[in-house]
Amino acid sequence: MEIVSQTAIWYHNGLPPLPIRWVLVRDPNGKFSPQALLCTDLLQIPTQILESFVQRWQLEEVTFEEVRAHLGVETQRQWTDLSIARTTPALLGLFSLVTLMAHERWQRQEPWVRRAAWYDKTLPTFVDALAEVRRVLWKVPTFRTSAPGREMMILQILC
Q1: How many CB atoms within 10 Å of residue 21?
Q2: 91 and 131 inside one domain
Q3: Angle, to 10 degrees, between the axis of helix 46-71 and the axis of helix 126-139?
Q4: Is 11 inside any structural domain?
Q5: Residues of the chain predicted below pLDDT 50
Q6: Looking at the structure, do residues 48 and 116 belong to the same domain, yes or no?
Q7: H-helix or E-strand containing 98?
Q8: pLDDT in tens, 43-56
Q9: d(Cα 132, Cα 103) in Å, to the nearest integer?
Q10: Of 69, 126, 138, nearest in space to 102 by CA
Q11: Which residue, among 146, 25, 126, has the nearest Cα to 70 in the 3D structure?
Q12: Residue 39, strand partner residues
């Protein structure tokens, strides 16, 4: 791989100029397309930026597979590309929130893993995390339909 890097100013109308470090990666054999990477941390050296990029791909691969399987990101049925562009980040945020909440719970107690007669799994999946978060949220009094011990009041509206 051939790597070249330099600093530059990123400018966008209406925003202040931002110094960035750019890294251009090229395969001399031509097997891979050249790739440009940008970083706002000017202290990062090019190899650190490249390593972060490679690690991110490994992490995203698993994340997007789980999001596709459990949240239906690729099967959205909105009318416009703009609505899909708004929904996808919300679904990724929801996926992250559920994962973090379940992880926090499982630090304090053993995870409950759903099992089936035909599928014996030992580690929790996103379905287990979602079930754990549901169990926690359904116990919170905020989600009850009526507050306990309250008297009913009848309101009459006169027009």
Answers
A1: 20
A2: yes
A3: 70
A4: yes
A5: none
A6: no
A7: helix 81-108
A8: 999 999 988 888 77
A9: 10
A10: 126
A11: 126
A12: 21
